[in-house]
User: What shape does this take?
Amino acid sequence: MKQARYGIGVVGLGIGQQHLEGYRRKGLRVAAICDLDDALRTRTAEKFGVGATYANVYDMIADPAVDVVDVALQPWQRLPVVEAAAEAGKHVLSQKPFAMSMRQGVAMVEACERHGVLLMVNQNSCYVPGFLAVEPYLESLGDVYHMSITCDGRFMDFPERRLIPAMMVHHVALAVHWFGKMERVYCHAHGHDLPVAEREVMAQALVRFGTGVGGLLSCNWSFLGAAGHTHQHPHEEIRVQGSHGSICGHSGEMSVHIEDPEPRTISPDIEGTWFPDAFGNSMSHFLACIDRGSTPKTDGRGNLHVLQCLFAMHRSATERREVCVSDIGLDDDIDLSPHRVLGADER
Assistant: This one.
């Protein structure tokens, strides 16, 4: 495989475990891994057959066998790592959410553009096998005028503390990928047992896209009782409605109903599952773009709009009003990080 000639370096072996499994299934080559936990590094290297391990990410970036740096650190830790990778001429795949600060997001994009390396955000909802299977049918739905994505579960302690950038980012990125730029949002959020100023664990957003599509994005990770969260990461229920048909289902089972030229229902084949295959699909797409010199479909520059949507939703929820996404400027001092950002002196 052409893609196997690129050496991948993975930093952060939490969610990075899913990355590695996805890469193994795709036959991709992992040249190095990096994590502060010595025991975790050793176990992971043995499990996935990785020869080079590092406790210091800057040592891994300097490894000539590493061509692509997969940054699976928390978002408030990424800026110095992405800047160092770009300066070293390494392409960068960033885990979502890309950033919790608009200025940090812009800084990472500009660093990669300045050094001529590709930057892609792992908006892995856009690479989920079930969603990829129905994507070709979107044009068959005629004039699409409504979409919704709902997700219920119970996972109160995600490190980002903010459900909108941490979890709803999946829904926003997929919706933007399918329906274009978002123009306006009206969002309600709640912190369950804490004020929204400290965290949100559920949010509902009415959204309007420039293409005329309207939609509802609903994510509730504080649902009490057993219903809706038999797994830690519940599935997303998606509905898309157009003048000639509809799409509905979740990542493991999708159906397409088309009325024109005659009514028919299609159940497309789905190859793989969200975890871990979406991670393998995203890196495969990224390596293909590096090989061709083309722009990834979830590139860093384009993902700044996703950040604007997330921050617009948060502003709407806190100010209890509709917000224009364009009101969120790329130079706005917006930062939802729960921890202070690592500075250059802390590398």
User: Anything to note?
Assistant: Residues 340-347 have pLDDT under 50 and may be disordered. Residues 126-276 form a domain with the Dihydrodipicolinate Reductase; domain 2 fold (CATH 3.30.360.10).
